[in-house]
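Write out the bound-state structure for adenosine-5'-triphosphate.
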Amino acid sequence: MTKFIIRRFLSLIPTMFVIITLSFFLIRFAPGGPFSSEKKLPEAVLQNILKKYHMDESMPMQYLRYFNDVLHGDFGPSYKYKESTVNELIAQSFPNSIVLGSVALALAVFAGIGVGITSALRQNRWQDYLAMSLAVIGISVPLFVIGPVLQLAFSMQLKWLPVSGWYGRKWPLTLILPALTLSFPYFAYIARLSRASILEVLRSDYVRTARAKGLKESAVVLKHVLKGALLPVVSYLGPAFSGIITGSIVVESVFVVPGVGRIFVQSALNRDYTLIMGEVIVYSLILVVMNFAVDIVYGFLDPRISYK
Amino acid sequence: MTDEVILQVKNLRTYFHVDEGVVKAVDGLSFDLHRGETLGIVGESGSGKSVTNLSIINMIPSPPGKIAGGEVLFMGKDMLKMSTNDIRKIRGNKISMIFQDPMTSLNPFLRISTQMIETITLHQGLDEKAAKAKAIEMLKLAGIPSPEKRIDQYPHQFSGGMRQRVMIAMSLSCDPEILIADEPTSALDVTIQAQILDLMRELTSRLGTAVILITHSLGVVAGMCDNLCVMYAGRIAERGATDKIFADPKHPYTQGLIKSVPRLDKASGDRLFSIRGQPPNVIDLPDCCPFYPRCDRTMDICKRKYPTTTDLGSGRFVNCWLYNSEEK
Ligand SMILES: Nc1ncnc2c1ncn2[C@@H]1O[C@H](COP(=O)(O)OP(=O)(O)OP(=O)(O)O)[C@@H](O)[C@H]1O
Ligand SMILES: [Mg+2]
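---
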């Protein structure tokens, strides 16, 4: 097991290398550049700027220079936000998105699994119909509708929660509505996923054996059903976590959260090479580490997977 | 086998309500099981063997299934009227089951020890340690080598035959009165089938357990069972002592079944006999003899009415108009 973890961990290095290399060149081959927009700069000024950022060098040279900086943990200066480095911009925005995303995902997982179990055990009864209608709403209604509806209800009408904002006097109350909104589609998906797989396991031969042994239905569900049935949810958590962190652009604008979503979009429009790269790298790092963690957890849950 | 009847199934009817209509999977079934007896149930696929046995321990999936009538008397008490709590004390304890496919019948996520110990602690009130000792003892009886080590392994670390041995050990661990084995060897290859059947026979006769053995194979029945029920389309065609039925089958269906067993001592050039036609669809069966479209000795009444049971004496019963003198 330890061996497997180490090997699996080492395999993250080539993955990250490929991601960094590919995105470095892809971004540069996209039309336009960080200084080609708006009004034309005088040729001499442009040359100076390019020199300052080493962009007059050959592409392989720039790549090596950038790679070396990244290895030292330096993502370089932002081309557009001249007063900040990429490291600073990421440090300001990513943690907010991670807090928001983690809370939203935790909500989605607990509520989703709970609702999934309830509707599987009450299949085709009103609890099931109610839960699954809610799930369809969660999957089909866009966040920019759910968000304002929640604001209207809980902030404007009931006045329980702040309309928007982040750090400040109202923290952590400001977290609740955006997290709720963001969690909704994930909650819906997890509820449907766990319902379907619980129903499948409930029909399996080994659950019939457990019942024929005289176990109580609650023991059958807790001991024999849940472990197998929740494996698909566990494997979904990796992509869900990374998705929920960057997928929050809409929620960030509706609730004015200083997260990574808005900067991400802006940097792409601005061709702010270093900022894009920094975000891509941090984002992919989260993605591969989460998938790594999911693999390990999965291995502990499913004894049929052997690590040699 | 003694004269004491421990299980009495009376006019059991189990129906499934599906979109196409009502499936009368079991329709008016009766038989007795004596202490220590081995009773065989044979019949074609879909004749209602598994449904019969799930009905006995009241584990028919509902919906769509429903036990529409009848009684299942275990030691004189009707299991179909018991509370869920009471019947749970019988399941796995007084009446236990082994299923057809050992590859899927054990929980792949739990160790063998967990799965065996939970049954023993539940029904016998032993603590974990004593239960584990008991489980190891049962595995040893079931012929699992080095059971102290293997008990902590997971099902996927066992072969199919070994898993069925584990199932047998587990099902006998609470010393049940009745073991119901639903085609316990159909999923195994032939050499292992014989070993598993031998093991079952040896252990159950040692413990004095009565067995209901469901099978497709008349060969298995001949070697294992004191008595035999031949099922056709959810009903019993014929029942009685195994040797008597083999020596002198009464129902045309039983006669066909016995003729269709390949035999090495009979003429080798002959084609194998098989009963013509297909087993009936048990959805919305009319009230006729379900076997008449495949029967060579049909009479008028066969198409109109299901035959009443004829008592042929010495425990033999047949449901066929040929033996019924009152009507015709
Ligand atoms: N859950 C169910 N829903 C609907 N019909 C069912 C269900 N379970 C069994 N049946 C029907 O009941 C009838 C008898 O099935 P059963 O499983 O008892 O047959 P069997 O004699 O055990 O056959 P096999 O030898 O193939 O195991 C079949 O027609 C089957 O379609
Ligand atoms: Mg069956």
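---
The CA atoms of residues 267 and 276 of chain A lie 6 Å apart.
Chain A has a mean pLDDT of 86.
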